Amino acid sequence: MIELTLQALFSGLLAGGYYATVAVGLALVFGTMRIINLAHGELVLLSAYIAYAAESRYGLNPVMAIPLALLVVGTVSMIVYALLSRIRQDREINSLILTFGIGIIMTNGILTIWAADIHSTTNPWFQDSLVIADTLFAMNAEIVAFVGGLALMAAVYWWLNHSWQGRAVRALSSNRNAATLMGVNPRQTEILSFLIAALLATFAGVAIYTGKTVFPALGHVLTVKAFIITVLAGMGSIHGVLIGAVMIGIIESLTVTYLSASLQELAGMLLFLVVLFVSPSGLFGGRRALAR
Amino acid sequence: MRHILLLAALVVAYAGVPLLFGGTPYILGLIVAALTIAGIAVAWALLGNLGGMVSFGHAAFFGVGSYGSAVLSMKLGVPVFPAVLLGGLAAALASVAMLPALRLRGPYFALAILAYAHIFQILATEMTPITGGAGGLLSIPRFPVLFGLDLGGKTGGYVIILTIVLLSALAYDAVRRSAWGLALKAMHDTEVATRVVGVPSTHLKAAMLALSAFITGVVGAFNAHFISFLEPDYAFSSTWTVLPIAAAIFGGYRTVWGPVLGALAIYLLDQLLFKPILPHGHQMVLGVLLCAMILLSPGGLLPALRRRSTGERHAHA
Amino acid sequence: MTRTLATLAATVAAAALMVGLAGSVAQAKDFLLGSELPLTGNLARVGQGMHEGIAVAIDMANKAHAGTHSFKVSTIDDETSPAKAVAAVEKLIGEGVVALTGGYGSNIIGPASEAAQKAGVVYITSGGVTPDLTGRGYKTFFRINNTDGYALAMIGLVQQMAAKKVSVVYLNKEATSNLAKQVKETLGAKGVAVTMHEFDGSTSDFKPLVNKVKLQDRPDVIAMVGYENDYVGILRAAKVLKPDVKAMVGVWSLATAQMAKEFPDLMENVHGTSMLPFPVEFTQPEALEFAATYKKLFNKEPDYLGQFGYVQTRLLIDAILRADAAGTLASGGLPDELRKTDAQTLIGRVTFDAKGDNPHFTHRMGQHQGGKVVLVWPKEAANGAMRFPATPW
Fold first, then answer.
1. What's the predicted TM-score (pTM) here?
2. FRET pair for B166, CA 20 to 30 Å: which of A257, B11, B304, C311?
3. Minimal Cα distance from B117: which residue of A?
């Protein structure tokens, strides 16, 4: 039983890493622009399909496809930003609908280009097992994704707290008017946060392509998961995202181990609701989300 | 003048449409499906406008309503029409479970409702003895023959859903004009002030949530008896959340009739115009349309049409 | 005198023949079939697979009857939605289709075939295996496969392996849980210890589940009932955890050329249902032509979805031609004509009972062996030796 529990915790931790890399980009954009990008999951998916195309057509290692994927995802991300910045009224709800529409366009575009088949890397190294102390098992792909994702998130965290642009991003998210008065160029800062979100999405996409399977409908699933984790963390909190993601990952894998795999999503949702009811603005969200 | 127009519209809706399309069940079926979306869209807009709450989980109410009504009529032999109303009541009851979510705001509330929808869907899958589990329920009783009119058919279904949508929109309008509506509007402006004056804001919000859930549940129950089949993935499908939101926004969610117009426009344009031209990519057109509407006329279709017809120059925005 | 009479008779006969021939040429008809399928949405993949099979059947029929009859199919995407499937069926019937072929997902086929039944139009499918569909006893509903046939194959293979303990890992959807429960009941009655593990479609990390099987169940065989991405997830987890089992067995969508190509390392030695070996061994000319046409149209190897879509459509076309020859097509004779079907097809013998089910349907089991799929069950269909015990790791 101990062996089972340990493996469940380990699997949950790794799954949490995946969830976090997808969610951090969403949280970052929300932090700076107060906008939920409902096409974020589709950006992740797009990156995964670029990696697939590069591998199946040119035999490129998926990791080597990251620069190309970044270029494509970054461009699309900029288009999303350009469209979003044209919204003048009711930004909160209209941006939701706009990005939702973009998500529909992207999902169907991917379906048209790559059909509905499932894909994953054919490179066997990613699926080889890595065993720690004879009790903890993982695929190489999962370890790479976890370590890489963690490093990337740490870099973003450091950047937010220590660089001038990073501070500008945080200033913008806490008080837009004051930040603008203090000389922060909101447009430039927003673009920057969108590009960083694109970088995170690109990495998450390649990670999913190597460790899991991808299909066109996945984008929507990823968006919802990322959205839930962002809210669970408390909107805009980066380290909260990591903790929330790992919590969801672990409660899911423990549910599989002690109850049934068909109840894992139920457990994740219940955890989400319980956290919200106890602390209405998420784990690290301050008091902002409470009804006035 | 307005009354004559309204009367004419009603005559066309109740008599003209069935006479015109009675022979083509395909078209009538599409209109019924569009009106089903319209019903949810009205309920969603009601919650958003009057309650100030954006919901991402109206599928929860739709599913509960449809399962409630189907199970009551199949297992307990309740006649279909009372069962539909009880289905709506079941959805309103389900909204009671969501009361803790009322103190959440904005996206927090929206996602909490989404989580409920997921939870209800999983419960429907796991509660096999009552709901039939993943296999769902087949051969749900259809609407009966009443006054010589077969309500189980396409035309009957059309008349029923049209009535449901009209009554819902009228109820919405009535609430909006009532003292409650005024209080709710005041609440939007400053909730604290309203509370000080003595308006119980949480009660009002709860009432709006229950009303919205009831309407959505009735629409879900209608759909269950019309399609005559249910399964968890279908009953709680995110389609029942996403399409009505898109329809409401497209038509203009700040108006009463915008969501109805939006649902008819989106669904019928998509199925009748875009699908034959682009058999596989037509949903892409829907996405483009949605984006264009947000960017070009954020208030939605109905306000845009009104602006054009009255030639109003002063910016409403 | 007799000579004259004989000449006269011959002339009359020849004339009659001419008239007859001319008549049959004049009767050359264009038959329009309808097809309602999920080409987008959750079931897009399987829907597209069946769609390809239907296209192949139409292409082959046009070639076989060139100059006499021609066939066309009008396809509408049901977007994996029951309401849109009903609308599609009604639209196709409005266009005047002779019959409908297609449909995927029992929950979508249910209402769609009901709409066809109301209009008295034949609906033939291979996309929904639940007993409920044929249980309705519709006169116009036909299906060439069913849960029983899949369960029989899986059970047969597990018994051939003489497994004592089996862990069934299954998706909590309708078709998959029905099949899993049938396997459990039948094997349980035969003294095999069966443990059941249900998972839902959102599961992407199967390690905790497979670890439970590995440490608690310790079975001889892991039986998987799901779809492609579930199999890939389970097999990857198993490959990492290496449970001490003798075989990995699955059902549909697993022993396919596509899976062998996409996941070569993962599939080795895995069993799944398969009607034909891969590469297809051309024992019958029909299979040969089918594979060639498939290659021509879609530039890839046919998979099981294509085979089923092809067979259902071919049987339908045959029955249409018979009904047309008998002059009953216009007067609703097609269901009766289909019910007279008794044909050897790519998926074995097909007949239809009163409810439209195919009582002869039994699937076969194939095993991935070095990029090929070798048939290993039943014995009489086997074209190679079963590797046992053997796993992908």
1. 0.87
2. B304
3. A269
